Amino acid sequence: MRQSTKRRIQVALLAACFLGMTALAQAEIRFYKIRKNGQQMNIRMALGTDKPGCHAFPVKRKVHRIAVVNFKHCQLYSTRACEAGSEIPALWKNKPQKEAVVFTPGSQWYLSPDGNTPVQAWMCVRE
Asked: Is residue 34 part of a domain?
């Protein structure tokens, strides 16, 4: 194998590793609602789910569960401006003794044991 070909392969592998690590480090918050038939569905019409700070849904959304990925923590709000006092609590793994308003990374934050809860905004913080 020629030296230049070998070098190109090394550069390509290095670039692929870098892009793979970048994709793994992507932070986001995911929202799920529960449908009438009991199935959970990902809510996709939310902009800014991968960015820190306060973000509002265009219209109030009904949310059943959230997943926090690679953020230090996130919070949900019943007002568009992420106002103190309007935080929405959730249950970790649906256990009443584990209620919180600051959600650390994980995919089992339930806003309601068996339904959806109106959410207007969210705020996430990076590490």
From this structure: yes
Nearest to 29, CA basis, from 90, 86, 79 = 90
Residue 72 belongs to a domain with what CATH number?
2.60.20
Whether 79 maps to a domain, the answer reads: yes
pLDDT (tens digit, 0 to 9) for every residue of the chain, 127 residues total? 566 665 655 555 555 544 444 445 699 999 999 999 999 999 987 889 999 999 999 999 999 999 999 999 999 999 999 999 999 999 999 887 888 999 999 999 999 988 999 999 999 999 7
Q: Is residue 102 part of a domain?
A: yes
pTM here is 0.78
Backbone angles phi, psi at 69, to 5 degrees: -125, 120
- Number of separate domains in the chain: 1
